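Model the whole thing, not chain by chain.
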Amino acid sequence: MLRTPGIERDRAAEDAAFAQSPIHDFEHVFGDAAIWGFSNQWKALLPTAPRMFGGVRRGHQRVARALRRAGAGARVDDPTELDRLIRQVARDAGLSAIGVAPYDERYWFEEDRPQVVGDRVVVLILEQGWEATQEIPNYHYEKSEFIAYGELHERACRVAEALMDHGYKVAVPGNPSGGQGINIHFAIEAGLGQLGLNGQLLTPFAGSRLRMMTLNTDAPLPIGAPVDYGVTGLCEQCGVCARNCPSGAIRLRAAMHRGVRKWKISTERCLPVVSQADGCAVCMRVCPVQKYGLQTVLDHYAETGEVLGKGTDELEAYQWPLDGRVYAAGDRPRLTKSFMNPRALWGFDASRQTPGRGGAAASDLIPDPNGAAHG
Ligand code: SF4
Ligand code: SF4
């Protein structure tokens, strides 16, 4: 099951892709599509908005207060001691995992690069509820996802506050989804997990049943390293997410993309489903790693040569929210042409690299209660 730690890279191709077209925030490039997606998610968004945006607001207020105190605590120069202190703050805040990766401009959004303050990226992870995830796809899960974003933001800002109190600068994301760059890249480089066939970060403790957020900082925290947890080898034998994805958005063959060998999800096939079917996320729901835990799945494979749960309804069956039917293992709902290509997405081109019509980002429509929250 073991392969290469982290992800296979062609450094020259990564540099060339960055020089040709730096990475932008999805919402900046596809503002119209993002707003259309949000408008479809109102059923889950409305009841959870106070908790989600409340968490973001409280987090920003915490960071703004720390900024006013301007390094009130004792400066800690020793990386090991600083690491110990910050990990304790993360634990006390109820975060599930923390890791540190080198800052890499190639994986930071163009629109967030002016706020960069240092050469480290702190990755913070909050595990999502197990029960709600097993109900996917439905709007109760979508609600738990939105609430998790608010919770994560508030808790992660406690880590930012601690770093600032110890005399360091921190750049905090302004949007609820916690992104200033490609979070998965930094999580892999920090050794927190590996890329799964479903295009998500698979951690050993929760698979992809999680939300994550990144902070940029100049704090001299020890940097982690990629780890091979056995995910790549497992995915090669599993394929359960691809078999059950309603739209066939998950490709079984890995290919080089911007200098990185990866399984790349088809955005054109995923976006209509995720936007119109209660957030979909079937690919997270049917993954044995999120349900049973990585070690259990690896042990089972070592003993039997089989992927735990593969082919069983216990793992793979799900109720489709649009027709109420339960689809057995490997069976998938039929999606019509008009569902897969709604009028709102006519002309949507996932290969586009720069902001399109209007250039407005969905996140620009969400007021940041404290303005920029950067240390
Ligand atoms: S969210 Fe749904 S449509 Fe998108 S890749 Fe996952 S299973 Fe497929
Ligand atoms: S369902 Fe299987 S193939 Fe897909 S990400 Fe999970 S372990 Fe990998």
